[in-house]
Amino acid sequence: MNPDPFGPGEGGPGDDERPGASSPPRIPAPRESVEDGGLPLPDPQAPPPELDHDVLKSLLGAWALAACQPEEAAAVELHLGGCGPCADEALRLRDAVGLLQPEESLDLDPGLRSRVLAGCLDRRPPRIPVPDWAVAYDAETARLDALLQDIGDGEWHAPVRLKWYDGGADRPVNRRTTVAGVIAHLLTVDGLVAVALGLEDPLGELAPEEDTPYARTETYWKASHFPPTRTVRMPWREQSHALVRTVSFAGGGSGELTVPYGVFSLPLRDSLVDRAFECWVHAGDIADAVDYPYEPPAPRHLNRMIDLAARMLPSTLAQRRREGLASPAKSLVRAGSPGRSLRLEVEGRGGGEWLIALDSPGAVGSAEHEVAHVALDGVEFCKLAAGHVLPEEAAAGQDGDREAIRDVLSAAASLSRM
Fold first, then answer.
1. pTM > 0.90
2. Mean pLDDT score of the chain
3. How many CB atoms are closer than 10 A to CB 112?
4. In the prediction, which pLDDT does 8 show?
5. What angle do CA 215, 218, 219 make, to 5 degrees?
6. What is the C-alpha to C-alpha distance for residues 277 and 272, in angstroms, rounded to an integer?
7. Which of 101, 122, 42, 102 is nearest to 74 (CA)?
8. Contact predicate 176/161, CB 8 Å
9. What is the sign of the dihedral through the CA atoms of 402, 403, 406 and 408?
10. Which end of the chain is more exposed for a tag (fewer CB within 10 A), N or C?
């Protein structure tokens, strides 16, 4: 981060005083303006009033809190320069005031942008609104961009391990890269959405025949003569802005466009939620690499991410069953009919409840056919779906059919990919 968050200031008399000098630094007192109904400020050339020692001593507490009138503050500060006992007492009081005020981070609150935008939009709705299903992507790319703006040049080369869960082998895997390499990965995979919207592919003619997230990322990395550097930030940033701008102008109907991911496809409205999820996960990977605090998404955005994962579980479970990685179906039903179900209860931020159909991907989850119940924290569930937590390590409350629970947790981990 920035080595000197404070820029050079315009100081007046007393700005060059340092700890250990003969008199403590001046603490500016609050001022009242004539427009606000306050009294006119005293003449700065006028000498401070002459007050006796007891009065000045009684003002030390107010002075430490910067609650004196300007002329009283000037009299106290003049007195402190010649009275050792009062100067010591003033120093103790000032230190005590510092303890009463908790330190605050110099970094901006990650939610500040959203609150400012919400306040503006409450007063004046946007002429071209961002579709509700694209808001999470807009927010998460903005948060990651703010993190990237704050890291130093050397931190772009900090090592990062991309982690996911290989559902076919039922084991965790990882790929070593750097902070810049992670942004290159996001750039190339977001390119799948760009192509679906008719925008330029960041890979251009290098796009692989097997157009999967893994293949695209490896192609980009191998085509670079040098490892990616911070210069990758601007293409990624401009592409994310172009995606949000394009879907906003296209309107809500664009959400039904199909985005192919090689082995599967998603509607555009789900694809941008998926991209928001991956942006947050990899932002957390970067933040860990550079030792930077990073918070989960806003609850309503997190809820969309959890909802997408929950809706994908039945089809993922069916695919694992076809590959012999899950237990056989026990009660097949026709599409649209209620079937054997697991209740997924997600607690905390963005939580809720989902009924997951176990035997037929086209079945409807049913409380009457519930055979198992799993409860876990929202962020924990997202880490499971990102392949950062193994199915057997998920801190979940479990009740009912153990086989069904194991299959669903493994299916959740299998949602992850590079």
1. no
2. 84
3. 10
4. 39
5. 80
6. 9
7. 42
8. yes
9. negative
10. N
Tell me if residue 399 falls in helix, strand or coil. strand
pLDDT above 70 covers a percentage of the chain that reads 82
Distance of CA 65 to the CA centre of its chain: 36
Whether the CA torsion 187, 382, 268, 120 is positive or negative: it is negative
Q: Which two tokens stand for residue 146?
A: 């703010």
Measured N-to-C along each axis, helices 299-322 and 378-385 cross at an angle, to the nearest 10 degrees, of 40
Helix (H) or strand (E) holding 260: strand 258-260
What pLDDT, in 10s, does the model give residues 1-29? 444 433 434 344 334 433 444 444 433 34
Q: Residue 32 pLDDT > 50, yes or no?
A: no
- Distance, in Å, from the CA atom of 352 to the CA atom of 303, rounded to the nearest integer, reads 8
Q: Which two tokens stand for residue 37?
A: 């109904």
What residue type is 307 in one-letter code? D
Amino acid (one-letter) located at 18: R
Tokens standing for residue 112: 């500040």
**Residue 276 has which token pair?**
């928001």
Flag whether pLDDT at 292 surpasses 60. yes
- Taking the C-alpha atoms of residue 286 and residue 305, their distance in angstroms, rounded to an integer, is 20
Q: Which two tokens stand for residue 209?
A: 């025949």
DSSP conformational letter for 168 = T
Q: Decide if pLDDT at 73 tops 80.
A: yes
38-58 in b/e form (b: 16+ CB < 10 A) is: eeeeeeeeeebeebeeeebbe
Do 353 and 346 form a contact (C-beta atoms < 8 A)?
yes
Give the integer Cα–Cα distance in Å for 308 and 316: 12
Helix (H) or strand (E) holding 371: strand 364-377
Put the strands of the sheet holding 397-400 in their side by side order: 352-357, 338-347, 364-377, 397-400
DSSP 172-234: EEEEEEEHHHHHHHHHHHHHHHHHHTTPPPTTGGG--SS--HHHHHHHHHHH-SS---GGGHH
Listing DSSP states for 38-101 in one string gives -PPPPPTTSPPPP--HHHHHHTHHHHHTT-S-HHHHHHHHHHHTT-HHHHHHHHHHHHHHHHHS
The answer to whether residues 384 and 309 touch, using CB atoms and an 8 Å cutoff, is no
The kind and range of the H/E element at 345 are strand 338-347
φ and ψ at residue 269, rounded to 5 degrees: -65, -35
Token pair belonging to 101: 């005020």
Q: Say if CB 279 and CB 185 are below 8 A apart.
A: no
